[in-house]
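Consider this one:
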Amino acid sequence: MAAQLSSSSASSDKKASPLIVVISGPSGVGKDTLIERMSELGHDHHFTVTATTRDPRPGEREGVNHHFLAKEDFINMIAADGLLEWAEVYGNYYGVPKQQVRDALARGQHVLIRVDVQGARRLRQLLPEALQIFVLPPSMPVLRKRLKERGVNSAEDMERRLVAAMTEIGESDEFDYCVINEEDHLDEAVRQVSDIFEKESRREPPRVYEI
């Protein structure tokens, strides 16, 4: 069940351990914006670059937003066991390459994995020790507004995503924590996520990952 953040179980004098953090939530909730703001504020983490077979959106760059692959190349990565998890979403494949996760943990960095709710569900099975955070919209009208402002979805696709969001929000209790991304209060959401990292990275016993 998703928890409210408290400081009672954190140990401030324990050395921090690197975490694998799964950040999920409905389409349009602002997952990328949240992670980008964390980087702007100097948070030391490795944001995994997912592989996908979808076409780049305007302004997206190879190796920064995603690794854009042909379907055949993606399937070859699956066969080589090179992906931590993968799924087909809205007709395209998405997956998290394993090696960059291993390398970041070895450097002592937190690893951030941004996935949809389906991907988060798979990761709970594959990596039960991963810390899972669900990003919530303040309301469904605000989520509709954000999807519309993105300008990348048809009206039909936007309605499909809103319907899916209702189901996905219903799964938020399966996550360790929930954070509401309020309108015009992005830095507050970042602060909450940062506090969660601080608490969980110093917990006893530490989270242990087998990749």
Summary: The longest strand covers residues 83-89. Residues 6-11 have pLDDT under 50 and may be disordered. Strands lie at 20-24, 45-47, 51-52, 67-68, 83-89, 92-97, 110-114, 131-136, 177-180. Residues 49 and 66 are 5 Å apart (CA to CA).
